[in-house]
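Need tokens for this chain, all 920 residues.
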Amino acid sequence: MANLCLIGQRPVYQQFTVDDGLPSNTIYKVEQDSKGYIWCATGTGATRFNGTDFENFDGSDGLGDVFGLSIDSKDRVWFWNNNTYFSYYWKGKIHHTDTIPYLNRKLASIPNAMLVDNDKLTIVTDSIDLVELDIEDLRPTKIIPVEEHKIGRSYVYPYLFKYLGFPPKHFINTSYCSEKLSFKLKRRIMHAGVFKTNSNNLWVVIANDLGLHLVEEIDSCLQNKKSILKDKKLNSVFEDRTGNLWVASQTEGLFLLPYTEVLSYDVKEGLSSNSLYSIANDSEGNIYVGNDIARIDRINETKKEIVSTQTSPKKGKVNDLEVSNNNSVWAASEDGVPVIYNDKQFNTGESNRRNRPDKVIFRQNDSTYWLGSANYVYKCYFDSITQSVNFNILNKVTDKRKFYALYAVGDTLWHGTARGLYKYIFTETDTFDYYYGENDKLLSIGIRDLEMYNNQLWIATANNGVLVFENDSVIAHIHKKTHPLSSNSCTEIFIDSIRNCIWVAGKNGLTQIVNQDNLDSLKFDIFNIHDGLIGNEATDMTVDPEGVVWVSTKSGLTRFKPEEMNKSNDPKIFINNVKIWDKDTTLHENYKLTSQQNDIGIDFESIYFNSPTQYKYKLFGRDEDWTITKNKSVRYSQLPAGDYTFEVFAINEEYKTSKQSAKISFNVALPFWKSKWFIALCLVTFCLLTYLIAKYRINQVKREGQLAELSLRGIRSQMNAHFLFNALNSIQSYILKSDAKTAYQFLTKLSKLIRQTLYHSNQKNILLQDEINLLKNYIDLEKLRLEDAFDYQFIVDPELENKNIKIQPLILQPYIENSIRWGLKDIDKSGLISIYVNEVKNDSLEFIIQDNGIGRKKAGEIKSKYFEDHKSMGTEINTQRMRLLSDIQKREFKVQIEDLYDKNQQATGTLVRVTMPIET
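Here are the structure tokens for all 920 residues:
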């Protein structure tokens, strides 16, 4: 049984309202600036749209009801409302002209009292004077008083200005040619809006009427070509640089029509259901679509009709359609295999009720059809006598595969199942069955369609993209991660012989693949709702003899010709803000930053309304690889000193990259303590300090006047010079390695050690605790120099802790130095130095310095490799010094050195025992 209805078709649009961020549902005017932003004049202010978000400017910015706007060559966006002055947006801010001569005297009763040309602005003042202003600095260049032009207030606008590019007088005697729109345009051209298209046709909006009308001017006659949005009250229309149509409505917000030549059908236009699953076409220009309620709709655009056939009383899916040479339609449905011819359905019989639903049908020729069900494959044909379909089951298939795709050529039948790819080969005596999923995991996944191109089998998979199969192996894998495929979930492959391309339908629209003869150089275009498709979930597609692409979706049916769509535009990219420590800056191409300004945030954007956009960026001087992201900002913290260049590209869903990148460069200066002058100053200061200390100590020795004290101070001077020599080498090493932090830490400890040494050098004796503190500072300095290669511990007799015991200074350090420098050298364990302090009889202290190093014998062998006849200067000086002290004080100063061994006579370290009297 068939239903007949007259059809219409319409472009699909996106609608934006206050719920999406618009400040008002009343839109007066739409324009586009040089960066690609869409600007709207609305009932409660102006708004700027980037494809995702609306940025609104309202009463808080000095804007109220904005009746119109225009954009000049300097990218200033001019607004006008009931104020007696103009306002404009420029460089991120709203500016007002209430202090600019003539621009503060606008005629408020005229909604568009400004004409924007490339090199000048022309306005109507409140006294009906005409004033031209220079576009650069807004100074008046020409003034025509009302006495000269003699145009009254009521006619100054239509007489003077072009109405969006047309002189109003041009249309005074112009009529529409169509009967539906047969009326004469009146003198007051403001009652109608006339807008040029990019193809030099005209869009017409009529006040107090419905719809948008595309007309062509032929001999002063406006011939209506088509009407869209026929149930909407509109104010104006704007066609952007990529061909998108933006329509401003009186009460329903903003409409975006990606391509007006992309037309769609749904139940409003006569389809029996919006949820479509299959499509085919015949040689007479008919399009057949199968839906989810067991109906097949036949669309004939020439006759402007849709004929609907109910294939089953049960409302199941029509999963696949095939058309024979005599234009009979075969269907695979969830309730049998109907055959429709001349809008009549024939008795089809049943394949096997237990094995339905039928998933796929393939026409090998007009006498041979293959049918795949949920369990079996059938070879079937139409019996013209009984007018029914006969089914021949392939008995070999018994493992209950779900058949989704079939392709037969010669004696070979390929079939795609939920488990992967199989192949039958038929001979006169037997049937051979091959399964490819055992040897290739790519061929073990769900398959939804098979098509043959140049002896290559193209395979649409359920969730892994497209495979190209040849000579029993996969030779190409087209996947979303590696190719701009609309989706990895593919439902249909179609070989387009008219364009010599391959189409892939999937869950995110259609992908057109060209240059398919070279699998290494494939090219892609994606078509989805951003391009005007009625829905993204494409279930099937076909191409009619006229080259029109038809795609069935779960939201309806769409037809288009890709050649009529502007898909060649590359996304443009720009940087719109640079932040330093989260504070906005004035945008520059190059920045000179201090060492403290090393936290940088960069905001960038691409205005591209026809596909989602990704970004590819890299910071040269820091990043090794490019980063791809959907984020529109990046932040770099704690950047070291150096020169950097940030570069970013925009990438659309077809992997088309913006031809020109956006760049900024910046230099982060060195911190002052890393600069050459500061390092040089430190070295000079250090050397000067060393010189002054040495000179001071020599002068002290001279003032003492006693030979013993002079000798003793000389020994101290030699020992401290040794300290400083090691320290200078370490600092130099860290500076050469650019480790300023460690060098600074080392220098701090060294300065402390120098202060302690300077103080102790002037003392005949010091507190025991002061000596311990000095030794700790020295050992810490050596640990830092040797990168914590050892540890140490002080163990002081508790009875000594609260006594103000004084001792001779700077005696113990050389033995600790020997342990660090030689005793702990090349050990295979963590080094440890233990220092014990005990009181012994005769008012003396015993200091025990013990390490777990390699012992003196092995240390001597190592020393011999570096120094011939090496002697420890520190210990030799100490020996002489203690001998002098013993002579002077007549008390015992002595040192004993003991080698330590384990039970196997392996060296386990060295023990130094220093005994000295307690000073009074």
